[in-house]
Amino acid sequence: SSATHQASCERRNTNRIQSMAYQPVAVSEDGQGATQTHPPSIHDGDSSDDDDAHDADPPTVLDMYPGRTVVSCGGRFVRGRHPTVALCSALLAIVPSAFFFIFSAAYLWNQVHPAVVIVTAYLVFILFAALLWTALTDPGIIPRATIAEANALTPPSMRTEGATTPARILSVMVNGQEVHLRYCYTCRIYKPPRCTHNSDNDDCVDEFDHFCPWVNNNVGARNYRFFFLFVNTAIFLTIYLLVWTIFHATKVAKANDGFVDALRKVPSIVVISGMAVVVLASVGNLVCYHHQLVGRGVTTNEDIKNRFRSNRNSPYTHGGYFMNVMWLLFGPRKPSLMRFNIQASSYQRQVYQEYLDFKTGKGVQRYNPAAQQQQQQQ
Question: Which of the 8 DSSP states describes residue 300?
Answer without folding.
Answer: H
